[in-house]
């Protein structure tokens, strides 16, 4: 199984190197009402509207049980994730969940190969 950070597995338990769960400055995961899930650098938030720069849409993910785990741990199977290219800026209306990401998760998710058809 591929992982994205400073992890080690011992007797079936996964351990993370101390100090690796720092929040990445202003990088968030946003779940919207009807536009799906996106992550990027939070530029502005006003009510239910969030503007991100250097944003990627999370079309399909594997290797994390929930969006919360994805925001904290990244994906344990980044090669199976489907994220299209980075867009310079996007304004998302109806943002219903905004989760700050750890540095580990942001590094992992930005490192997912661009999915194209």
**Mean model confidence by pLDDT:** 88
Gyration radius (Cα, Å) is: 14 Å
Low-confidence stretches: none
Through-space gap between termini: 25 Å
Task: Please give the order of strands in the largest beta sheet.
Answer: 6-5-4-3-7
Number of contiguous helices: 2
Highest CATH level, the class: Mainly Beta
Report the biggest beta sheet as strand number plus sense, adding barrel if it closes.
Answer: 5 strands, antiparallel
Number of DSSP E strands: 7
**Helix/strand class:** mainly beta
Proportion of helical residues: 10-25%
Shape: globular
- Please name the CATH topology: SH3 type barrels
Order of helices and strands: EEEEEHEEH
Number of domains: 1
Description:
The structure is a single chain. By secondary structure, the chain is mostly beta strands. It has one domain: SH3 type barrels (Roll). Helices cover 13% and strands 44% of the residues. The protein has 2 helices and 7 strands, in the order βββββαββα. It has helices at 67-73, 103-110; strands at residues 7-10, 13-16, 23-32, 37-46, 49-58, 87-92, 95-102. The strands form 2 sheets. It has a 5-stranded antiparallel β-sheet. A two-stranded antiparallel sheet has the order 1-2. A hairpin with a 2-residue loop joins β1 (7-10) and β2 (13-16). α1 packs across α2. The longest helix is centred in the last third of the chain and has 8 residues, at 103-110. The two termini are 25 Å apart. The mean pLDDT is 88.
